[in-house]
Design goal:
The protein has 19 helices and 28 strands. By secondary structure, it is of the alpha+beta class. The N and C termini lie far apart (about 60 Å).
Amino acid sequence: MKFGIGQSVRRTEDLRLVTGHGQYTDDLRFESQAFAAFLRSPHAHAKLRSVDATAAKAAPGVVAVLTYDDIAFAGTMPCHAPVPSRDGSPPKASPIPVLAKDKVTFIGQAIAMVVAETYAQAKDAAELVDVDYEPLDAVGTLQAAPGGPQIWDSAPGNLVFDWVAGDEAATDAAFASAAHTVSLETVQNRVLANPMETRNAIGVYDPAADSYTLYSGSQGTAGLRDRVAKDMLKIDREKLRVVTLDVGGGFGMKGFLYPEQPLVLIAARLTGRPVRWSADRLESFLADDHGRDMQMRGELALDPDGKILAMRVIGTANMGGYLSTFAPFIPTLAGGRIFGGVYRVPALFANVKGYFSNSAPVDAYRGAGRPEAAYLMERLMDAAAAQIGIDKIELRLRNLPGPAELPFKNWTGIAFDSGDYPHMLKEGMKRAGVDGFAARRKASEARGRKRGLGIAYYVEITAAAGSEQAQVKFTDNGGVELYVGTQSNGQGHETAFAQVVAERLGVPFESITVKQGDSTFATGGGTGGSRSLNMAGGALEVASDEVIAKGKVAAGQVMQAGGRDVAFGIVEGIGRFSIAESGQSMTIGELAVTLKREEIPGFEDGLDSGGEYVGQASTFPNGCHICEVEVDADTGKVDVVSYHVLDDFGRVINPMLVAGQVHGGVAQGLGQALLENCVYDAETGQLLTASFSDYAMPRADDLPDIVFAYEEYPCKTHPMGAKGCGEAGTVGALPVVMSAVADAIGVVHLDMPATPERVWRAMQRA
């Protein structure tokens, strides 16, 4: 089928976006709109003795100034990840209001909201809010958090949770009897999402209906609606509509609730005017949720032949100044379920502790726990190979389960259902020309450069919890509209979902329009965890099957089947209903238009149908990344000179879209590995990298040509056979880049980011 599953169909949304016809939240304009700006704390930790807004209220153009007393009725920021500690207790509470009440816990926390006729007036007036601070000792980093100045009364020693998983006794026994034990300390440097479009929110209040509308760039309107309505405004969710238009990047960061979203709604009700806010870049650095920021010690126990007997993971994770929406889940269950990767690891014990610090909250960032897990395992495999004296590729092959062992259950009981991991590793090496690496290394040395080869085999686990709804509707002229609850942030959902339905129903691809970003017409978990194709795609297939079932009955009436069976099939790419042995048939489009124009009892809605897909099981994208770098021996500068990826994403819907997702994921992983680093001062909690002058983002000339290929091993846990691909590039990129750097300079391990200075110092020590 020309535009069906498996075809590299060009993105239908691109014409709109690249010609400037996209519509983002900040493009909206409303009559009598007002602008919001915030006074944010310059202190990382302080008591608020008083907040005086008198001067700000008298400033030119000011419509209103809100402080805590104006929003005291609102709820505190919720955390929806009750990950239990080893004693069964939930994470320690951090009841932070949307505007600070009596203390602040990180620089950039909002204290007052100013609403004015223009943004400039609001920003100027915000500087007139007089706050009497009592600075407190701060703890700005994860390393300083345990035992540092206490931030929340509920969390002695700043300990939020003490999570454990696995079999500690079996793990200890395996280590005691092991022929080899290997340990490695790793750091997951803190990073920011930095999407092109900053966070934003516009609040509109309708007094006649006593209802609200929130326009905000997000990763899912239904979940955001429920959090704002239930947790913050304490209203029925039917009283709130959330709309998300085009989104200029999310990467996990736009999947959470932020104070500004309920605040613009409160301000709209109090002022009687639409209230809008968009973050400037400094606000994004200070007040967006950050990512990663973990320290992990991994240990492996191996037998004399290098086969893994057990693994131990001991880690700490930074939660920031308060618990964000899913924060405790990310360093624990999100990636912890696949600690050990796809290797045979008979026993494993993990203990991860989370700590508050006087820094911005930390939550999911592309990959959300899985890059951390893969990084630790793959760096450990390199360290084990070096210590034991086994080739690092051979060590991996000895521990990868083969196809005959599938489904293979890991230490948690999760079953890896499909794939051929040894073949993928060998084929990846072949495609990357690993056999010729020695010659390439010699050529690099002749030019005064050190060359290294990095190898990583990753596995991902996609989100499959909850349910997702979708609707398939037909227009009067035969067009098809798909309504989904997930939200594209640039992934190409409009194209991929249309391909799924075009193939299922045999309707013209170009006749399909995808509708998203409105909490009134679809519910679900939104976009995150590479779940969209699994969940929304599944819901669209359920809805499409309902269309077919409904259509068989309707076609029987329209064509007067007289009780004879009506069949549905795809003929030359067109869906067609036919009556057995009669020669009568009609296309699905003809039937849809007929039902719209004629009143047939029982078909008042024509073929329009809805479907709900309930998550069955996660899928497991996996694959091999192979990277080569050159390091300047004099300066330590790293250049990535070759990058190959061989992925197993199950059934691939659109190879071109998949390649784009892999390229983007690799770029973000490479950025973290070589460049990006969000740094706070340990004693003051001041953000030292609060602009692009200090925070290095990857540029085009930092990235190599990425040679991407895939093989299809359809998963057995989803009817579509697809495994998801949105985060896999990042999962594999972190370990493979650092593997190559370490190999180039002759060290076992080097922490990210591998900046020229850090690499140069490591070479001097080596």
